[in-house]
Design goal:
Blueprint lengths: L1 H29 L30 H8 L2 H7 L4 H6 L31 H4 L39 E3 L7 E3 L36 E2 L2 E2 L7 E22 L6 E17 L2 E15 L5 E15 L8 E15 L3 E22 L1 E42 L6 E5 L2 E16 L4 E15 L8 E15 L8 E24 L1 E28 L4 E19 L2 E16 L5 E15 L8 E17 L2 E22 L1 E2 L12
Antiparallel strand pairs: 1-2, 3-4, 5-10, 5-11, 5-17, 6-7, 7-8, 9-10, 10-23, 11-13, 11-16, 11-17, 12-13, 13-14, 15-16, 17-22, 18-19, 19-20, 21-22
């Protein structure tokens, strides 16, 4: 019986202790500030987040106990709303003190959101998704002691000003920065992009800027130019020996001068054949002690190994005579000439050059239009003798007979179709006949203007022919030929641009601008008419025979102005025409000019004024303006942008 009473007493004591513990925990829970919630702990099965927990030294024991309970026990204390669990906005960790509202650090507003947020979202702890699916605990932040007047220690977070808000529970609302000082909150600093997160929306409604390889690119600003991209270059030294007989009794050779003319090159696979003519002037002393002259033209052929060369590319040969050695052997002049042959092979390509103020100034052809036109010609040809069959027809368009005229939005092309016809006559003998057929064609090229530069490459893509035999005949002189020609038309405008040099960029042959200058002159002249004039109806003028020579600090310009006067006759009332040519010369000051530089002169007739002093005397004034650009050809490496522009890969998109 005594043992039963002891058991009952122990059970009652345990019950009293349990009730007291529940009451104590409940009282501490209700003492927690309103608007907070217990943290989500590891192993709860929920989406892992990073949470901020105040240090144990400044946290009441009840909150430490709640933080150590399992998730189910924590939810029994205060259930977590579903919308808060998934849509909680990030905020700084909070620390609470008994009897006061918790202090919170100011957090930046997300892009696209206004600074005014609901009070409950502003009081939530900072949570963030972890890439590994594990809960990460943020470093603890010590609460701010408002009662302390001491200065904060080095490295400690500065206190943040707060204002009381009109929300339930007297919760404090964070204020946005006020950069203007007028009480208007400013925009909060946007958060940085994360590698695996989509780009945030702009608060102004515009898309974020495009990022390409760490640099900002604006599509379409880098000009597309037609450039001579260097493929390869190489040089070779050639030693040539000639033996030239001189008249008997020649005493000595006084001098030998030379000049290189007619330099041509032909491109093969990985090789370039160079042909030239060496003009020599030999001055020798004859038996009469007089100096005599002997001229000769010597053809020279050689080849240079240039890896990467292919037919259809462009070559630029430069031949220099390094040394000439000569001596007499029994009235025979023995000459040894050493030549240095340098070949540069380029290919015309479209490249986007990156412009930058203060960069390297060059002259470049900016592409205006790049189109292809096609011409189909069906031409009857009369053979010189009757043919029983045609073996082959070769068609080409000689570039020396090709004329190009740009007009508004079109390009007019004229030239000759050079045909070589190989056929078999009635005696079974193969014959050859050449035929030149003129043609005229135009290609639509939007944006073209008369002052633009046009490059046309004709390509014969198809040739067909048929002999037209009369009824019962085995031979004929009539042949019908069809030719299809493609015209690759590139229209560009010449302009000066400042480009960016890059040691790892594209190697381009370009003309670097060294100086520019402008000058105006006025030509004043009296012209005597062939017949008396009632009035001057029109005057046309153009600049011809323009020549320019670069000198130190200036450019000398010479040429002629060709004018055509149209006037009404005094006696007959008919319109008459009279032409005249006026020579001129001008000097343009150009800083940076030097001898043997490349000079480009753009003449402009700005004004023409005529005054009829008498029926047969006309006073004329012509104002000319000259725009001069001086430069030199260089091989430079330039920064280029990709063309066409690739779509940049936005992180997280």
């Amino acid at each position: 019986m005594a043992q039963e009473h002891t058991l009952y007493a122990m059970a009652a004591l345990l019950l009293i202790l349990l009730v007291a513990g529940v009451w104590w925990i409940s009282s501490r829970h209700h003492a927690r500030p309103r608007g907070t919630r217990p943290p989500v702990l590891p192993g709860s099965g929920k989406t892992s987040r990073r949470i901020g927990i105040s240090p144990a030294a400044s946290t009441p024991a009840g909150e430490v106990l709640a933080a150590t309970l399992p998730l189910e026990a924590a939810l029994l204390v205060e259930p977590l709303p579903a919308d808060d669990a998934t849509d909680a906005a990030p905020s700084a960790p909070s620390g609470a003190q008994d009897g006061g509202a918790p202090e919170r650090q100011e957090r930046p507003e997300p892009w696209g959101e206004t600074p005014q947020q609901p009070a409950r979202q502003q009081q939530e702890e900072e949570v963030e998704e972890s890439p590994a699916g594990q809960t990460e605990v943020a470093p603890p932040v010590a609460p701010v002691d408002e009662t302390s007047t001491d200065e904060p220690e080095a490295g400690a977070p500065a206190p943040v000003e707060t204002v009381a808000g009109d929300v339930a529970g007297d919760a404090e609302a964070t204020t946005a920065p006020d950069p203007m000082g007028d009480g208007t909150p400013g925009d909060a600093e946007p958060p940085e992009w994360e590698p695996d997160a989509p780009p945030p929306a702009s608060s102004t409604g515009r898309e974020p800027p495009i990022r390409y390889e760490g640099a900002m690119l604006t599509v379409g600003v880098d000009p597309l130019v037609k450039a001579e991209v260097v493929v390869a270059e190489n040089s070779r030294q050639v030693l040539q020996e000639w033996r030239t007989p001189l008249p008997a009794g020649t005493i000595k050779v006084r001098d030998i001068t030379h000049r290189i003319v007619d330099v041509r090159c032909e491109l093969l696979d990985d090789k370039v054949i160079v042909q030239l003519v060496l003009e020599k002037q030999v001055f020798y002393v004859g038996p009469d002690n007089l100096v005599h002259h002997l001229g000769e033209r010597v053809p020279v052929s050689t080849f240079v190994d240039v890896p990467g060369t292919r037919p259809g590319m462009h070559c630029q040969p430069t031949v220099t005579v390094e040394r000439i050695l000569f001596h007499l052997e029994d009235c025979v002049l023995v000459q040894k000439i050493m030549l240095d042959v340098f070949v540069k092979v380029t290919q015309r390509e479209h490249v986007n050059l990156v412009e930058q103020p203060g960069g390297l100034p060059i002259k470049a052809l900016e592409v205006v239009a790049d189109v292809t036109g096609q011409m189909v010609e069906e031409i009857p040809v009369t053979l010189s003798v009757p043919a029983i069959k045609v073996v082959e027809v070769r068609v080409s368009i000689p570039p020396e007979f090709l004329t190009i005229e740009p007009i508004n939005d079109k390009v007019i092309i004229q030239g000759l179709l050079h045909k070589q016809i190989f056929f078999v006559d009635e005696a079974n003998v193969e014959r050859h006949q050449a035929v030149d057929v003129p043609f005229s064609h135009f290609v639509e090229a939007p944006g073209t203007r008369p002052e633009h530069v046009v490059i046309v490459e004709p390509v014969v893509v198809f040739t067909a022919f048929d002999l037209l035999f009369p009824d019962g005949a085995s031979a004929t002189t009539q042949m019908l030929e069809k030719v299809v020609v493609d015209f690759l038309v590139n229209v560009a405008r010449l302009r000066i641009m400042s480009v960016v040099e890059n040691p790892a960029g594209v190697l381009i042959k370009a003309e670097v601008v060294l100086g520019q200058g402008t000058n105006q002159i006025m030509l004043e002249r009296d012209v005597t008419l062939s017949v008396g004039a009632l009035k001057i109806s029109d005057v046309l003028a153009r600049v011809e025979n323009l020549r320019a020579i670069s000198l130190p600090g200036k450019v000398l310009i010479q040429g002629t102005v060709h004018k055509q006067l149209f006037f009404v006759g005094l006696d007959d009332g008919l319109e008459h025409h009279q032409a005249e040519t006026i020579p001129f010369s001008a000097v343009v000051e150009v800083v940076g000019s030097a001898p043997d530089l490349l000079v480009q002169v753009t003449p402009t007739i700005e004004h023409i004024q005529t005054e009829l002093l008498s029926p047969t005397l006309v006073h004329q004034k012509v104002i000319l303006r000259f725009d001069v650009v001086v430069g030199e050809e260089r091989q430079v490496r330039l920064q280029t942008a990709p063309y066409p522009y690739p779509l940049p890969v936005v992180p997280g998109a």
